[in-house]
Amino acid sequence: MSHAVHPVPTRLGAFARLAKLDVWDYYLAVPLAWSLCGPDGWGSAPVLATLGLFLVGAVGVVAGAVAFDDVTGFRDGSDWANYGPNAPARRLARKPLLTGELSEREAVVFGWGATLFGLLVWTWTVAFAPHSPLWAVLLLALCFFAAVQYSWGLKISYRGWQEVFLAGFGVGLVLAAVGLCTGELSGFAAVQAVLFGLGPLLFGVYSNTRDAAGDARVGRPTAAVLLSAQGNKLFIAGLSVAEVALIVTAAGLGAAPWWFSPAMLPAVALRVAQLRRGVGLGDLLGARLIGLHAHRATVALLVLVNLFAPVLGGT
Questions:
Q1: Carries keyword Membrane (predicted)?
Q2: Which residue of 50, 170, 203, 228 has the smallest Cβ count within 10 Å?
């Protein structure tokens, strides 16, 4: 049965949508890592080259992972259930396998090509980085392995690990990039990496809630599938509260400057607005959109905090 819906605008555009290049939130780990390198690293050619390679490799790895995710969703029918023929055209167009713009074989070949490209570039990154502590190299290897196995091979997202991956991958990207550039890891960097990782998780859980029926049909056990409707709301609220609590308590725990919490108030306000929209009013798509803005605002604020820390006093 053919699922073709729209004519092919361009082949390149179809592959770009397969790679989800318009969703660049994980790539924000790179400017955040740069800001954590301190004044000595901000203008350093080796640091800038390392982060540039790191970003190119990340694009390849993520593009491969999301391509494999689309292939798996196409094969098991979950994407057709969640993005069915009644979906808005713009939303359905994000799935070029469903629209018939790409074949399954083309998507698989693209996925492997992007993945191997990302592995090659990340290998170069480690080879030419100013530092290569074992913990950073192992963390980067774990990020690569988890991305490839997200919905392919071991299919960790089909085994109850989706939420762990959504947060952990972001945490790993930030810490690995900082480690390769500085060779060190501070408590403040760890706090910021966790806040970064919570960003994709806190817009992903709203998408998972919207897609719960389709995921349940194919045995993909997200929190939204495993928990009751009320339990899932409590889960989302708990994650939101945990993020705010980390921001509020970081200074008291000695991991952040005293002015960190006030500086992050705009991000906290967005997170509260997201919780109200999604959990309070039940507007899942609206909450997801606010979550995207909250993540990007959080990263921007963290970068500013790091840039001003040497002047105002940091950790």
A1: yes
A2: 228
CA atoms of 295 and 211, how far apart (whole Å): 21
Largest CA distance in the chain: 63
Residue count of the chain, please give it. 315
pLDDT digits (tens, 9 = 90+) for 271-296: 999 999 999 999 999 999 999 999 99
How many Cα neighbours within 13 Å face the side chain of 296?
A: 9
* DSSP state for residue 256 in the 8-state scheme: S
* 299 neighbors 31 (Cβ within 8 angstroms): yes
Cα–Cα distance for residue pair 28/44, rounded to 1 Å: 19
Q: Are 99 and 5 in contact (CB under 8 A)?
A: yes
Rounded Cα–Cα distance for residues 294 and 267 (Å): 6
Cα distance between residue 10 and residue 127, in whole Å: 37
- pTM recorded for the entire structure: 0.92
Q: Are 199 and 25 in contact (CB under 8 A)?
A: yes
Measured between alpha carbons, how far is residue 82 from residues 15, 87, 202, 286 in Å? 21, 8, 19, 17
d(CA 118, CA 282): 38
Q: What amino acid occupies position 65?
A: A
Q: For 226, what's the count of Cα atoms within 13 Å in the CB-facing half-sphere?
A: 13
Sign of CA dihedral 155, 161, 163, 168: negative
Between CA 174 and CA 185 the distance in angstroms is: 11
Low-confidence ranges of the chain (pLDDT < 70): 1-9, 84-91, 314-315
